[in-house]
Design a protein that fits this description.
Layout (H helix, E strand, L loop, with lengths): L1 E5 L7 H15 L3 E6 L10 H6 L2 E5 L9 H19 L3 E4 L4 H5 L9 E6 L12 H7 L2 E4 L2 H11 L15 H4 L15 E6 L8 H6 L1 H4 L3 E7 L5 H11 L5 E5 L4 H9 L3 E4 L9 H8 L4 E4 L15 E3 L20 H18 L5 H11 L2 H15 L1
Parallel strand pairs: 1-2, 1-4, 2-3, 4-5, 5-6, 7-8, 7-10, 8-9, 10-11, 11-12
Helix pairs in contact: 1-15
Amino acid sequence: MNILLFGTIAGQGGIQSHLRWLAKAIVDGGHQVLIITPQPPDKAGLTWEEASHNGIGIYVTRQKIAAANSVQRNAQQILSLIRAVKQFDPDVYLGAGTSWRFSLLPLVLPQKTHCIFHEVMAGTAGSWRDPRWSVCRLFDEVVAQATPVGQNFARNFRWQKAIPTLPAIPEPLEFTAVLPQPVRKRVDLGTAKAALFSRLIPWKKAFWLVQQWDHLQNVLGELHIHGTGPEEELIQTYIAERGIGDRVKCFGRYPEGQAYVDLLSSYDLTLLPTVGPEGAPLVLLESMACGVPFVAYGTGGIPDYGVGNPNVIVVPPEPWETDQAIEYTIPKDGSQETRAFVTAVNQMAQKLAMGKINQEELQQFYLERYSYSVLKNAWLNYLQQLV
């Protein structure tokens, strides 16, 4: 089959990682792949060299074209894209994101082409300008990276057909690094090392988490924040002003590859109190891959990670997460939502102290459900059934 993919591959993130490894999985399955992407490949994402080595074609939509004005330049870019797509003659068109060019491309594709949208965000609707409204009219299928995400999409965009669940493919740490061999252990109450790995933006609630230290200091030994963003300076200042730097630390950007695996594996638990429009954060998969339990707020597709998984705690989403959840409201200190997450961290610390967390079982949960080999077969089976 000829599989046409659309999405961003420059930089780092969930979509970039998914497209990179999905393209490799498809090529490994004996099929042809052409990726349509807005920005050229770069060192942080999929490079030209990697793509060429793996037999993956790349077409950049925002090409530098000499034109008298922006209207002519856009027109030439669109015509060039149409020619490239028709020459590739795709059997399947699959993409993710919120690009108008992506959502309208089915209008010029061959009639035989199966058009699939992969919802890797929360499935919540924006304004009428949201390109995903076109998906409902021009695409044949919608798949979601988590069950709640598919339910959100069907409700918010009035999609009438069934939406199967196919997780996004994370960077397979079992291939790109050496995973630890977890050992089931007890962690004395008050000594557990907890970490948050995330962009430091308001809805991820890293700053809020640091502010809860008074409620966590009796059950945790240390709390470490890893990441960059607008809240980083706030966190650093708060830690200094409160004089808690001996146990609460903010380290900024965290490493990649083996160094990241080694760092993540050094913690007893990870935390993610996000309340934003999440899809299914890959950082939680990475935590499970290392056998490190997590506590996370159950927004977006996160609840799927807790199904049949007694070694993590997913705090149930609260009623304030409505159909317009993209316009979220961050819970205030002392609210029911705030208390629920702090209570869950206390519960996880208690479980660790009593030896009720099985780190080996947690890693196996990841390998059996979210490893590259498992997701590769799931995606190839799905695509082959279509054609």
